[in-house]
Amino acid sequence: GYFVNHDLAGYEVPVHADIPSQQVILVEDEDPTMSPMKAKGIGELGLCGVAAAIANAIYNATGTRVREYPITCDKLL
């Protein structure tokens, strides 16, 4: 494989329209880790924490806190 995007400036986060149709089968099973309301997360996007982790790494390296994306060099100077 190869990288399609070399930075987050040009990275487009997928939205619901980008996801193909799926058949979901729910398995009824008791789980001791469920909340009292019997609610559990299902299918959260794993990408959510990546940009924040990169922003924290940039802050730790440069001392500049950036709170808007994309993170570009002009925002760090």
Account of the protein in words:
The chain has helices at residues 48-62, 73-76. With 77 residues, it is mostly helical. The chain starts with 47 loop residues before the first helix and ends with a helix. The chain is elongated.
What is the strand and helix layout of this fold?
Blueprint: H1 48-62, H2 73-76
Mean pLDDT equals: 80
Number of strands: 0
What does the oligomeric state look like here?
single chain
Order of helix and strand elements from N to C terminus: HH
Poorly predicted ranges: none
**Distance linking N and C termini:** 34 Å
**Structurally, how many domains make up the residues?**
1
If you compute it from the alpha carbons, what radius of gyration comes out, rounded to the nearest whole angstrom?
Answer: 18 Å
C-alpha geometry: elongated
Helix content: 10-25%
Structural class: mainly alpha
Tell me about the biggest sheet?
A: none
What fraction of the residues are assigned to beta strands by DSSP? Answer: under 5%
Number of helices: 2
Based on the model shown, name its key terms.
0% strand, mainly alpha, elongated, single chain, 77 residues, 2 helices
In summary, what is this structure?
This protein is an all-alpha fold and 77 residues long. The chain has helices at residues 48-62, 73-76.
